[in-house]
Amino acid sequence: MSPFDYRIHSHRAVLLPVRPFFSARYFNVCSEESGRNVLSGMLMMHAEASAILDQLVPALRQAQHVVVLTGAGISAESGLPTFRDPMTGLWAKYRPEELGTPQAFRQNPRLVWEWFAWRRELVQAASPNPAHQALVAWEQYVPQVTIVTQNVDGLHQYAGSSRVIELHGNLRRFKCFEDNQPVTEWPTTDDIPPHCPRCGGLVRPDVVWFGERLPEQALHDALAASKQADLFFSIGTSGTVEPAASLPYRALDRGATVVLSNLEVPNRATPPLYYLNGQAGILLPELLQRAWPASKAHKTITNHDA
């Protein structure tokens, strides 16, 4: 079954396994001859990706509303580990599915809090990459750009995107475990986790855990944007977490041009649906430059990346 098969299970975050694309281990174990064949194929795919970018230039130039769904792949290019990456150090013996659940928090709130505090430190040390910056630059030329993200790192806002819909919350925010309301401050104590100043319940990260429902307003806004888009990008997401996985197809059903891009798909153009293999930090700035060659934003991204 394709990782982009149209499936709607529920409004819960349903995580399914996917096969990683050419891992470092794959290159280490393959023979020299087969390694050359793989690298040759990747160069060929690069040429194919370039041709697809040329086909997308008119669609981007003419777009009135671009919607971009982003997943862990775009944050990985900023050095942030994904949920599928093996954990290291003190957390090596745990799996995210064992820690990122309400049940785990009830059983061992201190352990879960400290794991998310570790992840928050990684996020706070990360910076937006050229892919984030390119999406900000698109706003100079496209009347409306909406980012729908499954990431919880806030890097889109940090980069300067003006309209970001967070489907899975944000690690930089907190809420009460009991009443689900935001918590912005709490009394200074030695308690881990801290307690809600309103009701005394435990404070938790404001993110969607496994088995929890997505925020209703965020999901509503994401669905509405998908139906209004005339150009839709799915960037760095495996397409296996519903209901986000269905958003590109909702846009496609409404007549939008849709681009599915990650490191797993083959390069293929079947207008109005395109598959684009490559790193977002390379593809998105390149598309910006081809659509608007005189863009000062592209020069800034290029210089920053250098």
What's the story with the biggest beta sheet?
7 strands, mixed
Helix content: 40-55%
Strand order of the largest sheet: 3-2-1-6-7-9-8
- Unreliable segments of 5+ consecutive residues: 1-45
**Structural class label:** alpha/beta
Q: Roughly what fraction of the amino acids lie in strands?
A: 15-25%
Number of strands: 9
CATH class of the largest domain reads: Alpha Beta
Mean pLDDT: 83
Shape: elongated
CATH architecture of the largest domain: 3-Layer(aba) Sandwich
From the N-terminal CA to the C-terminal CA, the straight-line distance is: 40 Å
What is the total number of structural domains?
A: 2
Protein traits:
306 residues; Rossmann fold; two-stranded antiparallel ribbon; 12 helices; 15% strand
Summarize the entry for a quick read.
The chain is an alpha/beta fold. The chain has helices spanning 24-29, 32-62, 72-76, 96-99, 102-107, 109-125, 130-138, 155-159, 216-228, 247-253, 280-291, 296-305; strands at residues 65-70, 144-149, 164-166, 169-176, 203-207, 231-235, 257-262, 268-270, 273-277.
